[in-house]
Amino acid sequence: MKSKKTDRRIKYTKMVLRESFVKLLKQKPISKITIKEICEEADINRATFYSHYSDQYDLLRQIETGLLSDINEYLAGYSFSDNGSESIQILQKIFEYVQENAEVCSVMLSDKGDISFQQEVMKIVQKQCISEWTKKSVNKELAEYIYSFAVTGSVGVVHKWLKEGMKQSARELAEMVINLTNRGISAFV
Amino acid sequence: MKSKKTDRRIKYTKMVLRESFVKLLKQKPISKITIKEICEEADINRATFYSHYSDQYDLLRQIETGLLSDINEYLAGYSFSDNGSESIQILQKIFEYVQENAEVCSVMLSDKGDISFQQEVMKIVQKQCISEWTKKSVNKELAEYIYSFAVTGSVGVVHKWLKEGMKQSARELAEMVINLTNRGISAFV
DNA sequence: AAATTTATTCAACACATCGTTTATTATTTC
DNA sequence: GAAATAATAAACGATGTGTTGAATAAATTT
Predict the structure, then answer these.
(1) Among candidates A162, A157, A152, which has minimal Cα distance to A116?
(2) Which bases of strand D have any atom within 7 Å of the beta carbon of a protein residue?
(3) Do B138 and B146 contact (CB within 8 A), yes or no?
(4) Which of A73, A140, B116, B172 is the most exposed place for a label (fewest CB within 10 A)?
(5) pLDDT tens per residue, range B11-53
(6) Structural domain of A24
């Protein structure tokens, strides 16, 4: 499973580079962030940066994929009861993870992050919930459209939730998303 | 209303710059596109670029706001019957516009474009449909979450629609989005 | 149609960041 | 402690940036 253990120095270098980058990303769009700048902030030699990342966008992507595998690992740690409300439980766990890592997640899911990542996040839900979905038989093409709607819609909700300071609990948000997905507005009137 | 008419040369310059830029945007992410490159493609002097735009991102933003005001103008040209299906009609018109301008729109709404624009597009729908929404009384905070879900979800559907070559009609897509928004999956089982 | 205004071009500029290299130093691992 | 590996420092040519001022070309105005 674990591929050797990585050198402490590498761990440190990557950590400070990530932190400096996220810090800068809070202040300005990625397009205005230079590699020189990231390295100065992190106090890491520029040549060292290049031995780990090809550019800012590569660094961003590595942070994102790190988060994704982190979420997957986090979910793997739980077994969900098969009583028809698995989707809510899974969503709840994901939202809890997002809550616990709000600093990074709020940047990555904001308009500073990129669209493809946002979709990747919610594809995890899709993957986890897919068995429940397919119980409700609809034709495949239609199902894919419903997926797109539900997945991107959920990202929108999470985005708003983060922006407003996460006032609701992860559980409440999960219930809301499931309701919206299953019954739309009619669930709330 | 109209603020003088703009010089023909300006019109031309801006047009070819936009075209060249969109062409490049189909090939690679905006971060890899240089101003030098756009100008060579358009056969426009680099100094001229700077007299109209500050950088690639400014150019992108201007294209986007152009599209938005274009859609608004397009919608203003129609009056919608007030028989409870206004939302469908408005959505249909918007989707027709997207269809007619598929080349630009598919780039702008893809992961090449930026998130804020995608949300702006669907805020037009929100604005247009808001009266119909508020009929169904829900509390304001909840309503905003529902908006977020519906709006971003709809963008997801449109994105998919464009990517798959717009097989459905604008009308069909409008109906699908309205159904998903109002009744969720339950509308399709 | 000529005069005037305005846009674009051209060439040059100093400047910053880029991405790579090479020798040297520091740290970690075994 | 020895060997291996990572980070540093300094230098490099290369490339794109953003701005300039003078010359040219095209539009609009009269």
Answers:
(1) A152
(2) 5-11, 16-21, 26-29
(3) yes
(4) A140
(5) 999 999 999 999 999 999 999 999 999 999 999 999 999 999 9
(6) 8-53
